[in-house]
Amino acid sequence: MPSVLPLGDPAPADGLLPPQVLDGVDSRKFGLYVHIPFCAVRCGYCDFNTYTATELGGGASQDAYASTAISEVEFAVRAMEASGLPQRPLSTVFFGGGTPTLLPAEDLARILTAAVGHWGLEAGAEVTTEANPDSVTPESLQLLADAGFTRISFGMQSAVPHVLKVLDRTHTPSRVPLVVQWARDAGLAVSLDLIYGTPGESMADWRTSLETALSYGPDHISAYALIVEEGTKLAAQIRRGEVPGIDDDDHAAKYELADQLISAAGLDWYEVSNWSRTPEQACKHNLAYWRGDDWWGIGPGAHSHMGGVRWWNVKHPTAYANRLGSGVSPAAGRETLDAGTREVERIMLEARLGTGLQVDALDKVGRHAVAGLIADSLVEPGAAFQGRLVLTLKGRLLADAVVRRILPD
């Protein structure tokens, strides 16, 4: 089942934001996330807020979704203006899901055109959509590029059929090089998403997936350890003993292999799970999350953030459509982060970046911990002596433990 929304305070029906969102607004970039909640098949490991066609009805149909999403864009414009926020062009736009490309390319283009028509785009802005390899054609990719998309992230996950079967992925491995070439022909930058640690995946399987992905020459690779979420099909299979469980040592060994092969292919890590061929090809949208910029999340279950205020929409597409149809905010709840919480989140996120975080921005406890982290080979000594805390390979494997040692008391 889709993941559970967090608890929070009631969100106002008019969408108005508190005055604190104006503090420092000129120093923060503004992005847009558009959630497309549709999938052809629910993958066994996934707990995202997604739905197959058989689970939907009424105003939640895929045919009507673009118009509903555009109505939230228009609601966001009014709410931000009424809250006193200045007009800012979009620095990034990201269509995620679900499988955004289950919608016709024309519908994705309509949503993007509406958003850009209201807010505009920064020069060089990044506009990404996620896609499954079996959900695009040369024609649909060209239409997306013509509409202003600049980048596509394909959910490759693995190059090994038996691993894809465990993950319930529907594409065949031979489809991936085709869609990569089609995307390049359309002028789109290409990212490939991989998952490691799937039950039954050997080290040789993982090497095959890495080498295969790298042979396509992507601009960017994301490699994520499989996390077994409660309530998913995969969790039930593991509990019943139908497939083996997850092994932390296996995950660590596979991460080390990923870093070795991806780095040797000329891509550098810029976040623990992400590598890009050049700094300019790092995912700017995800960097905006990790650096605490502002973004509005469009769609059921989508999360938003403005100046330390975070809110999230109702989960079900029918409830989402009904609220917007009634002219009220689709937000289910929100929270206002205090200064201490924002500082903890900043440290947690910036510590995972290849650029690291400033040592002198840590409190006394954090600064005193740095020497021990160097001694334990968890942070780069050269960077630390220059005032930045940057994780070593060992530190990336133990990133959560590093963060615990530098957090304020």
TrEMBL record:
SUPFAM superfamilies: Radical SAM enzymes. Signal peptide: none annotated. InterPro entries: Aldolase_TIM, Coproporphyrinogen-III_oxidase, Elp3/MiaA/NifB-like_rSAM, HemW-like, rSAM, rSAM_sf. Residues 24-268 form the Radical SAM core domain. PROSITE patterns: RADICAL_SAM. It is found in: Cytoplasm. This is Heme chaperone HemW. It comes from Arthrobacter gyeryongensis. The gene is hemW.
